[in-house]
């Protein structure tokens, strides 16, 4: 009986000792996070029956790390396919860590961007998608991937796919794009530019001298400047008619596209060497 009692006490003491030595991983995790240096940021905590990890990254976003609360070891997670890349971003979803990296430091439309997922259960990387440019938003935990389908002048379309940090597609849309302000004739961008110029010109008043066709933005400019077709120091004379696609000479009826072209040419109905004069 005495032996049985001693054995029971030994079991109880061993159980109490084991329970008392069991780590409080939640507390350890909070302490570790609280003591992270200012140059590091928390990504995600993994706490279950088996794993007790804290994932974090440097503010430079040039690496991410896994701290084992059980062994108190820190492991650097090497990012696959990063050779040659100059900039990347790291963010944590519920089941994955998402990494986006570019081929150069510039947000160049012509560059390529690679998005990877690091699964927190399998501890493996998966190449997720490739695009021309991305926008990484840690506040909303979303990444927008921009894929351009354009010609050499920049005309075409852009597909924008937005994902959460677990790789789930949230939105998808396509827009027309035009990259350059000055492009060769015949491209979509050139046609739009020409249409815009015509619209602006049609909405801007123009004032002309009826003797030489010089063009001005205000009547004051017309009457304040010297006209080369008049005597020394004489000013321009305002053409008081409306703007037209074709201007007719009031003496002979000859038509011209501009008043300048008209007043440059001699009128056969006027005196020797005299030029055309536009009708109102």
Beta strand %? 25-35%
Helix coverage percent: 10-25%
Contiguous uncertain segments of 5+ residues: 11-20
Structural class category: alpha+beta
Number of helices: 5
Strand order of the largest sheet: 1-2-3-4
Provide the succession of SSEs.
HHEEEEEEEEEEEEHEEHEEH
Q: What is the global morphology?
A: rod-shaped
* Biggest sheet character: 4 strands, antiparallel
Mean pLDDT across the residues is: 80
Distance between the termini: 132 Å
Would you report the number of β strands? 16
Radius of gyration of CA atoms, rounded to a whole number = 38 Å
Concise structural overview:
The chain has 280 residues and is α+β, with helices and mostly antiparallel strands. The chain is built from five helices and 16 strands.
